[in-house]
Amino acid sequence: MKKSLLVVLVCVSFFANAQRWTVEKANAWYAKQPLYVGANFIPSTAINELEMWQAETFDPATIDKELGWAESLGMNMMRVFLHNIPYDTDKEGFISRINQFLTIADKHHIKIMFVLFDSCWNDNPKAGKQMEPIIGKHNSGWARCPGTKMLFDSRTWGSLEAYTKGIISKFGNDPRVAVWDLFNEPSNSGYNDAVMPLLKKSFEWARAAKPSQPITAGWWTDHPMSNEFMFANSDIITFHNYKDPENLEAQIKDLQSRFKRPLICTEYMARKHKSTFETCLPIFAKYKVGAINWGLVKGKTNTIYAWDEPMPEGGEPALWFHDIFRPDGSVYKQSEVDAIKAVTKK
């Protein structure tokens, strides 16, 4: 690495870390929070973040209905993905729709964790009409944010900076927003170390917007460079765990021991991998670790199907991978609903 580039990266890391919450501040904040239990939310009528947020397909009626089902379980947090394209193409409309969404969530006593960037699934996101789901394929239309072309061209990052600062400045003191999750699984899709410049910038831009809520980005796999940066710069520690309850408990103990900061698991619950509500939720409650599973309602994202087991013929798999409700509001498995309510005391 050239010396000048190394100096820049060190300075960026210092800038981001310099405003990080202390351990004491993070734990004082968390002491005032309930045990967060919820889901990664997208309405069943949207295939991806663009279809959720663009004016033509924004669906407040479905959002209201489905967040009502979440409320009936005692869920009190949803993790929700944003995207830079609606900000670029319709800033005022996008902000208005976010505000409308937050009003609906607040009506159902649900706090929101927003995600700004994402390295997962389909590349080259575009505004306008989105693709139709591929039958039986998990997340066939989910869109990366910002996509490889922008990720590798820092000359285009002025719009990403405007998006990050604009959204966080607007909602950075909004009590309906609980946490900012800046970058989902940043090293995914083979990006590895190449994602680091934008990951670092996302923290720099977010800190500059001075939100009152904590900032984070989470562990998802053993990628040392991004993990160490995120651990060193996040106010609270977030992580993903789709493994069995023994693995989950060991990871919780390790993260609590290493960082002494609040923990929220921002993705879990994959039935075929023995990550279930019945077995994992008691562990989250035991350690007061927030629990945000993937998926609420079976819909266009096709997340009842497993990542690696498409069903081209369609139909309902014998074992759902994610999700809790069918589109009519009936539940996939009553014992899971009972397990959620036992923890939320609903």
TrEMBL record:
GO molecular function list: hydrolase activity, hydrolyzing O-glycosyl compounds
Keyword Hydrolase annotated: yes
Record keywords, A-Z: Carbohydrate metabolism, Glycosidase, Hydrolase, Polysaccharide degradation, Signal, Xylan degradation
Domain of life per record: Bacteria
Ranges of residues in domain Glycoside hydrolase family 2 catalytic: 167-274
InterPro entries: GH, Glyco_hydro_2_cat
Keyword Metal-binding: no
Example GO biological process: xylan catabolic process
Signal peptide (residue range): 1-18
This protein's name: 1,4-beta-xylanase
Organism (species): Emticicia agri
